[in-house]
Amino acid sequence: MLSHKHPHLRREREVDHLLLVVAPNHISLSQNMNTIFARCLARIPSGARSLHAGAAKKSVPAPRGDIQDPAAFLNKIGRNSAQFADKFKSWDHLFTVTSAEMKSNMALSVKQRRWVLNWREKYRQGADLYVIPVKPPKKKTK
User: Which residue of 85, 87, 115, 127 lies most exposed, with the fewest beta carbons within 10 A?
Assistant: First the structure.
């Protein structure tokens, strides 16, 4: 370690093969730290930030019961979702379309997208569909 050469350094830490020296009161060392971090970042593969995009695609469940098409699915989950039935081309499209596509290509609002996506995932996990009514707002009393 460097502490015997540089007694003014407060803390040192060795991480893998890289030695990080922390000296909060020295500006010249902060420039060296930027260089060290830049070298570390250069070693990260270029696509590492987007590894989550290549995650395994979720399966499309088979229609079951009286739910055989997107219109029946959307009608069953309620909250006026049936009005978007014509925007989903097929059963596969209902279960593979992304939220971004629903927003840009299908013009669904945030609440509508979240509602459909949440029910889509519940159905994928085996839950039966049912309507959850919206509670009317409480009247204010004085």
Answer: 127
pTM for this prediction: 0.59
Q: Please, what are the averages of pLDDT over each run of 10 residues along the chain (142 residues)?
A: 54 48 50 66 58 67 94 94 95 96 95 96 94 86 80
CA distance 77 to 113: 12
Kindly write down the DSSP assignment for every residue of 45-58, as one continuous string: -TTGGGGGGGSPPP
As given in the structure block, the two tokens for residue 49 are: 């930030």
Shared-domain flag, residues 81 and 109: yes
Q: Identify whether the C-beta of residue 20 lies closer than 8 Å to the C-beta of residue 32.
A: no
Query: Amino acid letter at 118?
Result: N
Instruction: Give, for 110, the enclosing helix (H) or strand (E).
Output: helix 110-124
In whole angstroms, what is the distance from residue 75 CA to residue 67 CA? 9
Compute and round to an integer the Cα radius of gyration of the chain: 27
Which tokens sit at 61? 């469940």
| Cα separation of the two ends of the chain | 71
CA 46 from chain centre, in angstroms, equals 20
Q: Answer whether 30's CB lies under 8 Å from 21's CB.
A: no
